[in-house]
Write a structure and sequence with these properties.
8 strands; TIM Barrel; alpha/beta; 10 helices; 8-stranded parallel β-sheet; 41% helix
């Protein structure tokens, strides 16, 4: 991007797209086409992936969804399904149709998750392989939607699942946090980072292989300060893309002079 405002002020440089680290995944919960156009015009350079959240786009006109996917793709943004829609297709035994339709409608990435269902290892591997062979960038999600169920998953289990997903062909593993960012995965019930868990995950898996869902500003700050601006962050609200980028670039008091 050229001709930026206030160019006399030096800031932390940013790798241009397509990049493999410092990814920002945005949650599109049903944006209208004009809102999507505004988002891309103002912040497209800082968005790497857009997830069509949960099952929201099952309720939207196909023509509109196609136009948004084309708009995002034209601006070098990968577009993924929401995990809940995938899980419903799996429960209804319609994965081949789901994958074929996703490809036909223009999705460039597929998220495979089992946040609300049980997905055995053999099926998980097969689905990752199927997605890769169809040309999708495959992301897998680790964690449960229900805090009580998620609490039963040890850090060692998450590490083992991540390694096996990556070996099967996943591009990144997503650490579940839901939209609330409370009491799931790497966050405690108040939304604060479990730093020991994050360190163990990144040491064993590699920070470049993980995308941490981080819907709250405080979580984004903690992860950037702990793991550098190159940490991959997801479940970012459309209105928070520019604010998050200021955190990555030292343009906000929370990170100014600290990264």
């Amino acid at each position: 991007m050229e001709g930026m405002a206030f160019e006399m002020v030096d800031i932390i440089p940013r790798e241009s797209k397509p990049r493999d680290t410092g990814l920002t995944m945005v949650l599109d919960k049903g944006l209208g086409i004009h809102a999507a156009e505004d988002l891309v015009m103002y912040a497209g350079e800082y968005i790497d992936i857009i997830k069509l959240g949960w099952g929201t786009h099952r309720l939207c006109p196909e023509e509109l969804v196609r136009r948004k996917i084309e708009l995002y793709s034209d601006n070098e943004i990968l577009v993924s399904n929401g995990g809940t829609l995938f899980e419903l297709a799996y429960l209804q035994d319609r994965i081949p149709e789901f994958f074929n339709y996703a490809h036909e409608i223009g999705l460039t990435a597929i998220e495979i998750s089992d946040g609300s269902i049980e997905l055995n290892r053999a099926d998980r591997n097969e689905l990752i392989t199927m997605g890769v062979e169809m040309g999708f960038v495959v992301y897998t999600e680790i964690g449960k939607k229900n805090p009580e169920d998620d609490a039963k998953l040890s850090t060692e289990y998450r590490i083992s699942m991540a390694r096996r997903d990556l070996e099967a062909g996943a591009a990144k593993v997503i650490m579940e946090a839901r939209e609330s960012g409370l009491g799931i995965g790497i966050y405690d019930g108040t939304g604060r980072l479990k730093e020991a868990m994050v360190k163990k995950l990144t040491d064993e898996i590699g920070v470049e292989h993980i995308l941490f869902e981080a819907p709250k500003k405080s979580q984004q700050v903690q992860l950037i300060l702990n793991l550098t601006p190159k940490v991959n962050l997801g479940n970012v609200r459309p209105e928070d893309v520019i604010p998050l980028e200021t955190l990555r670039r030292g343009l906000r008091g929370d990170t100014l002079g600290k990264i």
